[in-house]
Amino acid sequence: MRNFDFHNPTRLVFGQDTIPKIGQYIKEYGEKKVLLLYGKGSIFKNGVYDTVVKSLQEAGLTVVEAGGVKPNPVLSKVREVVALMKAEQVEAIVAVGGGSVLDTAKISAASFYYDGDPWDFYERKVFPKKALPIYGILTISATGSEMNSGGVITNEEEKKKWGWGSPFTYPRLSIIDPSVQSSLPVNQTVNGAVDTLSHVFEAYFGGTKGTLMQDELSEGIIRTTMTSVKTLLSEPSNYEARANLAWAATLALNGINGLGRAGDWASHGIEHSVSAYYDIAHGEGLAIVFPAWMTYVHHVDPEKFARFGEKVFGIVDGTTEEKALKAIGAYKAFLQEIGAPVALSERGIGQEHLDDMAENAVLRGPLGTLMKLNAQDVREILTLAL
Amino acid sequence: MRNFDFHNPTRLVFGQDTIPKIGQYIKEYGEKKVLLLYGKGSIFKNGVYDTVVKSLQEAGLTVVEAGGVKPNPVLSKVREVVALMKAEQVEAIVAVGGGSVLDTAKISAASFYYDGDPWDFYERKVFPKKALPIYGILTISATGSEMNSGGVITNEEEKKKWGWGSPFTYPRLSIIDPSVQSSLPVNQTVNGAVDTLSHVFEAYFGGTKGTLMQDELSEGIIRTTMTSVKTLLSEPSNYEARANLAWAATLALNGINGLGRAGDWASHGIEHSVSAYYDIAHGEGLAIVFPAWMTYVHHVDPEKFARFGEKVFGIVDGTTEEKALKAIGAYKAFLQEIGAPVALSERGIGQEHLDDMAENAVLRGPLGTLMKLNAQDVREILTLAL
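Above: the input entities. Below: the structure tokens describing the complete assembly.
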């Protein structure tokens, strides 16, 4: 086990009928004027927008609105939001939506106190010293952004989809009411589950030894996610399945699961490169990339892939190598069972940009920890994923 | 799953050679004069005292010392510590030791700002509005006090061993270097493991349904604890086993494991009553009380006890009732395997105070959630434990 230094200051309010309290919470923390940030309109359909606005108004808060944050959120939107925040001098951000809205809120909260371009933070040219407080209202469980400090933004002009975070960009408070996710389209629930699993895999397969407690936690999150998403395919309004999936998604990336282990994160890097070229959902990209990555690197740590097979799929027969390969096959079969794509071709992606995507993926250096991947490796993984 | 509101602001620094950083951390947070609080001297033997003092001195801090905190820490010591803190006007507490030292630090940190008697907080006569910052240096993994807000103190005069906590008594920062626990006597390692398991059980067996994610986490902590403590019996210096046991102990009671579930806590209540009458280690008391409690209440939720048997001991044959009873038997056998007592008689406790302890246990009302226990129930459980 590696040493670690963990500090997650986010307060998490979880459960049914918790969203109407948001105005009161903000009032108690002391802000009076907030930016209400949201996406492309699902919150109008599921009633969350009305609930939040009513709560903010009843608490006497002044509300400035900015909607239209896209999935795979973009830098141009961040710039627009930051300009509005500065013009209006808001005191906090209320981010209502999924990871895209929360991620946009984080970079915007830091950029509020910075005169230069927000992308400078992503390029590590500057580091924030503070950020506006962020309140999250989660409407889809997937990225874990509601309880961590990180965010991914796409710089459309430069085709860079990068991650960034700071100690100042943890949401102060996030609310998760799993019941509002009952109306999500099936594919979004599935993509969220794949995202959750992928976050766990990045820590689980990073190669660090002597982490029994972490492995147990990872396997528990994996099994819970798989069981819950399968239940939701037939019972989308099953509250317990929604709640367990939501809590699993938060635990997968609130820091706890990764402690004491080197994260790998190559698959995320590759997926970011794919979705910088193609308009593909992050969860879909991960469903496609991860089995290919597993196939390409499993020889470095076959014992861990075999353990994964045993603990998650009950695979106990065969040599270590055989069990490892069966495990990867079983994961691919699970993805197909829940309707996730497992090949680039399923989303109309061919060989056109393989080289570009491979080069793009390693722009900031080789990817991965379990196995260091250069552009050629990435190209081979993408080829496996075709 | 129940709704929950979680906020754990403690920063956790974990791993080898982390203790020498304590002075620097405190300096960065800004305090200049601290109380160094510790127990009965093990920190002199394992070198931790010297490491801490050197680090505090090198950071230029003024140090006031108070030692002699006992296991099952007592109110008279708290009063003495608070008087010293007020006289010296310290700005923070550095608590070096196990749960007893941390628990003493918590009530003392709150009492620093209160003119009345510290026990008033335990009696819920007053509630703190602030507390001095607490820095923890953990030397034995057991209570989880390093990353939660609670503490148990014994009022010797009134024979009350009670728990208390507040949002202000989370340690600001705790350091866990598992390697310093290599020199612990075997029975202390065992007692710590039993304490950890018992914390998990209190949430796991509380009766709340629809908590797959939490159950998975609990079972992971239980398996990790059992595996690690068994390794340590033959290899007390095995770092990975120490690290996994330590991280499991923290996870067992830093709040995460309990979220969304009603805790039971009857067994802790009964043990506190036992150790208010007899000078018995908390872990030993829990090893004795828990199997008796399980036997007495399992009929209320036999499915959960059967699940426990399957997930922890691999028990799959028999009716639900049979599996539940086998599980309780397997847990008792595990306790005996690691050298923990499973009967009051093993610690020389007979029938003398059964009625007194039963009455004392329910002083603040019936115990438990899975099954509400009155004095007669407690007496029967203690009788089962004889």
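Note for the figure: The interface with chain A takes residues 1-18, 209-214, 216-217, 219-221, 223-224, 227-228, 239-240, 243-244, 247-248, 251, 256, 259-260 of chain B (CB under 8 Å).
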